[in-house]
Specification:
alpha+beta; 6-stranded antiparallel beta sheet; binds 3'-deoxy-guanosine-5'-triphosphate; binds magnesium ion
């Protein structure tokens, strides 16, 4: 019954579609939060590194400029020196050459440069600071060197390269020697960069200098030295060979890939390099800041590894995603609890409704049962108790009488000549008589008296607390009342009489049967004596 009445409210039903949608949205939020945190953190990390790289770049630029600046005036000074000019004007004169050699040697020693020499317009070395050395440049032709060509063309030149005789790297600075509008030759000073090289190799920073062909010629990483950052074209390779810039030291290009280009001078690169463990190769990401060195075609690159930035970004992403997931889980848990409470409230309300309905049904059922019970023990025509009820109830009266020694009397009532009433006035009139009789009896009886219709026109009365005499009086009073009553039927007045038989219960008797029998006999006697009278037995 309760199951039939219980209908869960539809909005309280669990919606699996909504639950899946919520879960997907939550996961999406977690991923997006992690993604944003990762990129934001990485961006901040790169910003910091960018500032740091810029600072380093300026320091290294200054370090690189210092020696070149220091010696840049020397070739110009040499080019304007009378001794040098005379030497070139009298190249065949051994005295002039010797004087110039000594002068160059002296200058080289004092300036602490690597070499100083004078070339004629064909590129041939006329005088040199290492004139006494078996490896002297004298007699060598450097026409193929860019610093010679640049000086002839532009008045001055700059070059990084390997010494063709010493095989030691160095900066070459050159200046054209012009006399009376005629170019007599070129003065060259080679600057040793060994010191700078060593200093950079000791540096904690990753710093590189590339030439105009992107070849690394200065590097804090010795293994990257003389490696192009981009593969050289055939033409460039040919040029490098011709000028003998890197002679035999040029190595294969570095394996570099741009991960993110952040502008002309900044990018994140990935380098395939020797693994730190020493075995095999590994890919390492760097933030790279470039700085062009004006007037040289050279570029300084400061590299900062991004591994720490990336690791930090990952930590941020995981932390943010984790926090987000935690917050969402708490929210979802609270929502679940709220839903459960709502469901419980709703089912409680449903149960209450079901309970009310049940109570109502129960009441109806009780009424129905009561009606059925009353119907079962009531005579439908008169409303008096029926025979069944009488015989069910009378034993209780008997036992009470017995227990308390109270008297109990029985009166049998039978309508006289009722057959004739029916015959003369009709069955409906007879019914009316029976109803009238019942009404009068009920009105004149006491609460505890039991009145029942036990046959067609036969009635019985059980009178507790009444002895034979009292019952006789009551029966006679009834008989009289009834005989005075007039029933109207189809405009005719109808009057009936009754005969009564009275008997008192005797305590010696086990039940009422004997009493009833005696009352019946008394009734029979009343009939026999002429009817409309009361007899006692
Ligand atoms: P008496 O008792 O005086 O000897 O005569 P009587 O005519 O009353 O006797 P009898 O017992 O022979 O008749 C009873 C009649 O009551 C017979 C029957 O038709 C009638 N009767 C029985 N039940 C009903 C009823 O419910 N309604 C009506 N109208 N008549 C009934
Ligand atoms: Mg009868
Ligand atoms: Mg009769």
């Amino acid at each position: 019954m309760a199951a039939l009445l219980y209908r869960p409210a539809p909005n309280m039903l669990n919606d699996p579609g909504k639950r899946i949608r919520d879960t997907v949205l939550a996961l999406l939020a977690v991923v997006v939060a992690g993604y944003v945190a990762f990129f934001w953190s990485r961006q901040v990390g790169i910003e910091n590194v960018r500032d740091e790289a810029q600072g380093r770049l300026e320091i290294y630029q200054a370090a690189l400029f210092a020696p070149t600046d220091k010696y840049s005036y020397l070739p110009e000074l040499l080019a304007s020196h009378q001794l040098v000019i005379d030497c070139l004007l009298h190249a065949d004169d051994a005295v002039h050459v010797l004087q110039t050699n000594r002068f160059l040697e002296n200058l080289n020693r004092k300036a602490k440069s690597a070499a100083a020499y004078i070339l004629d317009p064909k590129g041939l070395v006329i005088a040199s600071s290492n004139w006494q050395d078996p490896m002297s440049f004298i007699g060598q032709n450097y026409a193929f060197r860019p610093y010679f060509q640049d000086a002839l063309r532009n008045g001055a030149g700059n070059f990084y390269g390997m010494g063709t005789t010493t095989l030691l790297p160095g900066f070459y600075v050159s200046h054209a020697i012009v006399h009376k509008n005629e170019t007599l030759g070129v003065a060259v000073v080679k600057i040793n960069i060994g010191e700078l090289d060593m200093e950079w190799a000791r540096s904690q920073d990753q710093v590189l200098v590339t030439d105009e062909h992107d070849v690394i010629f200065l590097s804090s990483r010795p293994d990257w030295k003389y490696r192009p950052m981009t593969p050289l074209s055939a033409e460039v390779r040919e040029g490098v060979k011709r000028t003998r810039q890197y002679d035999t030291v040029l190595k294969p290009p570095l394996a570099i890939e741009t991960v993110t280009s952040l502008g002309d001078e900044e990018q994140v690169i990935e380098v395939l390099q020797m693994a730190r463990s020493g075995r095999g190769e590994e890919r390492v990401d760097y933030f790279m800041r470039d700085g062009k060195l004006p007037g040289s075609g050279w570029t300084i690159h400061v590299l900062m590894p991004t591994a720490e930035i990336t690791a930090h970004a990952w930590r941020m992403a995981i932390g943010t995603s984790g926090s987000m997931a935690f917050i969402l889980l708490v929210i979802m848990y609270l929502a679940q609890v709220k839903r459960r409470i709502a469901e419980r409230e709703s089912s409680r309300a449903d149960l209450e409704r079901a309970h009310e309905a049940l109570e109502q049904k129960h009441g109806e059922l009780q009424k129905l049962t009561e009606t059925l019970r009353v119907n079962a023990i009531t005579d439908p025509l008169t409303g008096a108790w029926n025979r069944r009820f009488f015989f069910e109830s009378v034993p209780k009266l008997v036992s009470t009488a017995k227990r308390h020694h109270f008297p109990l009397a029985i009166v049998m009532i039978d309508v006289d000549h009722f057959k004739e009433v029916n015959d003369e006035y009709g069955h409906a009139a007879g019914d009316k008589v029976l109803q009238m009789l019942t009404t009068i009896c009920r009105e004149s009886l006491r609460e505890e008296d039991l009145f029942a219709r036990i046959g067609g026109e036969e009635f019985v009365l059980a009178l507790p607390n009444s002895d034979a005499q009292a019952a006789l009086q009551a029966a006679d009073r009834l008989r009289e009342q009834l005989s005075e009553c007039i029933v109207n039927t189809d405009g005719r007045a109808l009057q009936v009489t009754v005969s009564c038989g009275v008997s008192a219960y005797r305590e010696s008797e086990p039940d009422i049967a004997e009493t009833l029998k005696r009352a019946d006999e008394a009734l029979y006697a009343a009939k026999h004596s002429g009817r409309n009278q009361v007899k006692i037995r």
